[in-house]
Amino acid sequence: MGFETVKVFEEHIAKFFGAKYGVATDCCTHALELCLRYTKSPLMSTPIRTYISVPLLSKKLDIQHQWRNYEWKDYYYITNNIIDAAVLWKEKSYIPETFMCLSFQFQKPLSLGRGGMILTDNKEASLELKKMSYDGRLPDKPWMEQNIDTMGYHYYMTPETAEEGIWKFHDSLLKNKKWSFKDYPDLTKMKIFNNG
Which of 31, 61, 143, 196 might form a disulfide with 137, Cβ 3.0–4.6 angstroms? Predict the structure, then answer.
């Protein structure tokens, strides 16, 4: 088993959502982080009720953050073209010209314990995001034989996780757990977001 398995998984999920390209990552938060780094966004926003790691990215990346108090369903935008779609699991739901980030965390319909993916219709962006997720390299050639030109992060999905995703995919279509903003606490009340 090799990284070809990851490519097959990426193609399978991208086709299900109706996107041209998928870039598998080790988690949805890292998928969002790579998109923020790629787009060089100076600002992000999140609902007050979401998973805590998402607004914490603003602290990690030292970018401006704005809270929004609203009732979101299935997904929400953190910038004008980056979408947190961690709880979305719906065929042909990709929104063109965006970076939609998915989660395969253990409570999600496609439960792999951990994992994420960036969906995009931009070929150039998909290649750069792939390199960023693989320590700046491309996965199909030993890194020592590559002249690395991209800042990389160790955020890739392993072939073992991708293989599990391939065999669990059809079962995921039978799950109908729907997440809501109500499943999350009001993060603005937590100390971490109130210490300047």
Answer: 143
Condensed to tens digits (0 to 9), the pLDDT of residues 114-143 reads 999 999 999 999 999 999 999 999 888 888
Confidence of residue 196 (pLDDT cuts 50, 70, 90): low
Q: Is 78 helix (H, G, I), strand (E, B) or coil?
A: coil
Instruction: Residue 85: give the domain boundaries.
Output: 4-193
CATH code of 173's domain: 3.40.640.10
Dig out the tokens for 146 from the structure.
Answer: 């590559």
- Domains held by the chain: number: 1
Burial 161-174 (b: 16+ CB within 10 A, else e): bbbbbeeeeeebee
Report which residue type is found at 66: Q
Q: Which residues contact 125 (CB under 8 A, 6 or more apart)?
A: 38, 99
